[in-house]
């Protein structure tokens, strides 16, 4: 039997992430000998980025490739697992947590009641921080007017002494340009560079210290349950391979963009010391606890996450 | 162009000269018209909040975490209600090429048919909005929990806006039915 | 239950044709516009998929009304409604007439200049057309201008909001195409002024070939200096408001959307300074704003819903195949894309067109080796055409909502034809001389 699925991405068509996701859809087709065809649609083509969960449950879409934090309004647990600010310093740590540390089971526990099945995780990698002013550490964040859209990121920066401004992505460029804000949480270095953000904010912090989004590949639970086992396994495998490809390819892009930025002489790339990164992580952890109290599921995410980090020696007991 | 046409004369008067719902909208139209003030005040409030945010941020370096979400919410409910408001006042834009070419009797028939079609689609949208509200107002275990924005402030605006959209679609369906009845009765 | 899904038998090409035919047919019957697109979206959701697809429409309605992008629309309309109720606008035009002096068409040209200034203050259209429609149109008619010329100047000038930076069209394009928004703004700068220049040239041409179209103000010489000075006072408050709004944007005090609220506050303060402010004026202005934005936004709502349904039907793949199959010659493909934008502009709101075509066009454009920034400016220019082109011309609808009752929609569209011609010429110039964008 053949299957045709319609997935929506949370990235726009011209974004490198979207191209890579299309590559994944193609690979699924090849790995299943053409039995599974996934049509990948760019963001907003069917529904808005934060409405895909409902659309999948309703059977309008079959699945999505999206940043999990868009569903934090449904349950704070989505926000916490999507971006535990400061937890990861390398994408592989997060992928290992999802695969071996109970992350996958946790995600399904969160999503299945909403009618979705979590297939696997990927990430564009550590986001770089965009800034007009030189930032060398946590102290420089004091009073910094910065854009931060999603819950936990905004909360952590506020706790670190910054003045987070709530602006939509479409206003980031003009607001940075004119100095309404001095810094912004945006996305990975190469994309920031391509969209010209560094032209108006020439003091990026790279590698980033604040955010690494969890991107989920999920689909309608009933549809998933009806699939034969071999196809289920192939889908899981394809997502794992896709994650590795995406991470290495974006890392390459980032490094090339950083080299180019440094070469231009007009952009100063800042790299925080380990001490400063640790300071920021400590502040972040205090905020995780607050989120953990906001729902039962968020508490579960907190417990599983800290247990894993402690076991791996990434966090003090 | 359609000046002598009784059904659309109201629609042809610039906004500040017409202060009521059209007669055919009936009691519900008058209520909708009166309710407009609440949402109009919301727009002015949105303006004041934006001003306040600019001052707090620029002068005091203390931006709020609630101003933008509240502004978007106030404008969102005004946009939704504005559609209902225009329906009661027959102020939605209508292209009247055929409409104007036919006689008054046919025109009245057309008004009745149009109102019924719009009533049916509004009812359908109200039902679809209910499916959306089911997921925005209840958690999967059935307990009441309004969908939040997920921001640091995390207001229940998304849940409220979805419920509001459903309510407006339902009221709009009723409004169109009443319009259809009154057009049929030939009430002025 | 047989009806549900029955439209699939048509295939996507047949269904697309049927969709356009249905839009056109329903449009002329007098169904409120907002419901025409919503109704067609509903028919295709039911006819292609069944009831399960209908929540897609309400989901899009919800997302549309809750997007930050549209916050500046009620602000601009509120500004217009307050200005309309105060004497500020009338005084402004009296003063402008003085400055315009003996230049034929002077007030129309000044209206275009005001439009460009407004365009630099905002990134979206809707509010400005309402503003100019309430203020400039009655004044030009009062001064004896040809009605068609006056209407065209208001609609075409008011649409410049998305052509002159900042522009929401360019921002959305930049986010979709992953190109620098700053570079897009820079590239659109001269084309925006060029288009405004075309409008000015057209006004001058009309004024000097037909003196009745735009009367000269010879008599103004007789006004004594003391009275001239009094008249010129009318300029002070509007100029101050413009300085405050533009200043707040360019000094980094307010974001573009916030600046629209600064403008409202500035106009409110101005009415207070003039001793005209009352609560009943504010109430009337706010109620009119509610009505006007209800009308403006619901037109966009329907278009957005329709695009969602079309995409779900496989519209993206269909349009994409259509374009790539047309020719191997990049120029022909480009012109074909322009033609698609032109046709879509006749039926859809710009948000709908952007959502539908950008994901398809951008990868093709880059594959063909065209500069995506230059193409962004072309796209933006195309959207200028879409604002004016019938039967779905948002600029005409916005003006109709505030124009005197004797001006019908048909009159407005007739008046817009030469301006559409000017926009197409501007588009052609951009295609032939990409250098204008500085690329
Ligand atoms: Na603009
Ligand atoms: Na058009």
From TrEMBL, chain B:
Pfam family, one: DctQ
A single cellular component GO annotation: plasma membrane
Principal subcellular localisation of the protein: membrane
Keyword Cytoplasm included in the entry's annotation: no
Subcellular location: Cell inner membrane
Similarity section: Belongs to the TRAP transporter small permease family.
Described purpose of this protein according to its UniProt entry: Part of the tripartite ATP-independent periplasmic (TRAP) transport system.
Protein name, UniProt field: TRAP transporter small permease protein
Naturally occurring in which organism (per UniProt): Notoacmeibacter ruber
TrEMBL record, chain C:
GO CC terms, sorted: plasma membrane
Membrane topology summary: Multi-pass membrane protein
Molecular function via GO: transmembrane transporter activity
Entry-linked InterPro entries: DctM, TRAP_DctM
UniProt keyword annotation of Membrane present: yes
Subcellular location: Cell inner membrane
Domain TRAP C4-dicarboxylate transport system permease DctM subunit: 20-436
Bilayer-crossing regions: 20-49, 61-83, 112-137, 149-175, 181-205, 235-253, 259-277, 289-312, 332-361, 373-392, 412-433
Record key words, sorted: Cell inner membrane, Cell membrane, Membrane, Transmembrane, Transmembrane helix, Transport
The keyword Cell inner membrane is annotated on this UniProt entry: yes
Main function: Part of the tripartite ATP-independent periplasmic (TRAP) transport system.
PANTHER family assigned to the protein according to its UniProt record, in alphabetical order: SIALIC ACID TRAP TRANSPORTER PERMEASE PROTEIN SIAT-RELATED (PTHR33362), SLL1103 PROTEIN (PTHR33362:SF7)
Subunit structure: The complex comprises the extracytoplasmic solute receptor protein and the two transmembrane proteins.
Membership in a protein family: Belongs to the TRAP transporter large permease family.
Protein name according to UniProt: TRAP transporter large permease protein
Organism: Notoacmeibacter ruber
């Amino acid at each position: 039997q053949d299957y045709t699925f319609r997935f929506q991405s949370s990235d726009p068509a011209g974004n490198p992430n979207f191209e890579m996701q299309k590559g994944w859809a193609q690979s699924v087709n090849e790995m299943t000998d053409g039995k599974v065809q996934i049509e990948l649609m760019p963001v907003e083509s069917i529904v808005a980025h934060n409405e895909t969960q409902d659309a999948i449950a309703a059977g309008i879409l079959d699945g999505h490739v999206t940043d999990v934090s868009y569903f934090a309004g449904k349950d704070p647990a989505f926000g916490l697992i999507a971006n535990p600010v400061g937890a990861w310093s390398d994408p592989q740590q997060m992928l290992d947590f999802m695969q071996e540390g109970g992350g996958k089971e946790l995600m399904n526990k969160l999503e299945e009641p909403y009618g979705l099945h979590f297939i696997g995780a990927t990430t564009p990698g550590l986001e770089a921080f965009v800034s007009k002013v030189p930032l060398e550490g946590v102290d420089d964040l004091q009073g910094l007017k910065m854009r931060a859209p999603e819950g936990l990121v905004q909360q952590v920066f506020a706790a670190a002494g910054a003045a987070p401004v709530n602006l939509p992505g479409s206003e980031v460029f003009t607001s940075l340009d004119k100095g309404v804000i001095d810094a912004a949480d945006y996305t990975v270095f190469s994309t920031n560079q391509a969209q010209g953000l560094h032209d108006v904010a020439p003091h990026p912090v790279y590698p980033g210290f604040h955010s690494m989004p969890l991107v989920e590949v999920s689909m309608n639970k009933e549809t998933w349950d009806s699939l034969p086992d071999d196809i289920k396994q192939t889908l899981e495998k394809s997502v794992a391979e896709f994650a590795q490809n995406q991470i290495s390819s974006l890392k390459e892009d980032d490094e090339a963009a950083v080299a180019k930025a440094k070469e231009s002489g007009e952009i100063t790339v800042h790299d925080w010391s380990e001490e400063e990164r640790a300071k920021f992580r400590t502040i972040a952890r205090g905020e995780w606890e607050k989120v953990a109290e906001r729902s039962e599921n968020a508490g579960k995410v907190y417990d599983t996450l800290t247990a894993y980090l402690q076991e791996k020696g990434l966090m003090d007991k | 162009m359609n000046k002598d046409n009784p059904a659309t004369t109201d629609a042809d008067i610039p906004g500040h000269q017409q202060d009521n719902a059209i007669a055919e909208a009936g009691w519900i139209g008058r209520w909708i018209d009166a309710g407009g003030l609440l949402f109009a005040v919301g727009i002015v409030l949105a303006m004041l909040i934006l001003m306040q945010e600019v001052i707090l941020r620029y002068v005091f370096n203390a931006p709020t975490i609630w101003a933008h979400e509240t502004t978007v919410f106030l404008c969102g409910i005004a946009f939704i209600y504005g559609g209902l408001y225009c329906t009661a006042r027959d102020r939605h834009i209508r292209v009247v090429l055929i409409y104007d070419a036919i006689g008054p009797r046919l025109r009245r028939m057309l008004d009745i048919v149009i109102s019924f079609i719009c009533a049916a689609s509004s009812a359908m949208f109200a039902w679809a909005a209910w499916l959306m509200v089911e997921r925005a107002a209840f958690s999967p275990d059935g307990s009441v929990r309004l969908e939040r924005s997920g921001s640091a402030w995390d207001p229940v605006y998304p849940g409220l806006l979805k419920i509001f959209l459903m309510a407006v679609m339902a009221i709009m369906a009723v409004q169109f039915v009443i319009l259809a009845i009154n057009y049929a009765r030939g009430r002025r | 239950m047989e009806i549900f899904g029955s439209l699939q038998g048509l295939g996507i090409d047949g269904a697309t044709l049927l969709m356009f035919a249905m839009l056109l047919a329903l449009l002329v019957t007098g169904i409120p516009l907002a419901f025409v697109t919503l109704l067609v979206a509903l028919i295709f959701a039911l006819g292609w998929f069944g009831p399960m697809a209908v929540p897609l429409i309400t989901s899009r309605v919800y997302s549309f009304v809750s997007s930050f992008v549209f916050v500046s629309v009620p602000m601009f309309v509120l500004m217009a409604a307050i200005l309309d109720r105060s004497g500020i606008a009338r005084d402004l035009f009296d003063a402008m007439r003085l400055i315009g002096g003996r230049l034929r068409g002077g007030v129309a040209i000044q209206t275009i200049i005001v439009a460009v200034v407004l365009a630099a203050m905002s990134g979206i259209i809707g509010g400005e057309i309402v503003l100019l429609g309430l203020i400039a149109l009655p004044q030009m008619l009062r001064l004896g201008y040809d009605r068609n010329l006056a209407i065209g100047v208001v609609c075409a000038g008011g649409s410049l909001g998305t052509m002159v930076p900042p522009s929401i069209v360019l921002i959305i394009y930049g986010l979709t195409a992953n190109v620098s928004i700053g570079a897009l703004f820079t590239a659109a700068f001269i084309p925006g002024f060029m288009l405004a220049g075309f409008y000015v040239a057209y006004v001058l041409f009309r004024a000097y070939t037909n003196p009745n179209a735009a009367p000269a103000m010879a008599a103004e010489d007789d006004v004594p200096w003391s009275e001239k000075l009094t008249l010129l006072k009318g300029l002070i408050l509007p100029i101050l408001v413009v300085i405050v709004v533009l200043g707040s944007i360019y000094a980094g005090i307010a974001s573009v959307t916030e600046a629209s609220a600064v403008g409202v506050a500035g106009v409110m303060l101005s009415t207070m300074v003039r001793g005209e402010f009352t609560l009943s004026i504010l109430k009337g202005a706010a109620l009119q704003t509610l009505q006007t934005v209800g009308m403006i936004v619901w037109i966009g709502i329907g278009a957005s819903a329709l695009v969602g349904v079309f995409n779900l039907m496989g519209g993206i793949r269909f349009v994409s195949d259509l374009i790539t199959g047309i020719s191997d010659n990049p120029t022909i493909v480009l012109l074909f894309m322009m033609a698609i934008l032109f046709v879509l502009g006749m039926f859809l709101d710009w948000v709908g067109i952007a959502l539908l075509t950008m994901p398809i066009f951008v990868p093709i454009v880059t594959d063909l080796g065209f500069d995506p920034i230059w193409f962004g400016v072309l796209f933006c220019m195309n959207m200028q055409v879409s604002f004016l082109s019938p039967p779905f011309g948002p600029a005409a609808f916005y003006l109709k909502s505030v124009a005197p009752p004797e001006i019908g929609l048909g009159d407005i569209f007739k008046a817009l034809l030469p301006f559409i011609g000017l926009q197409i010429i501007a588009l052609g110039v951009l295609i032939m001389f990409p250098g204008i964008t500085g690329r």
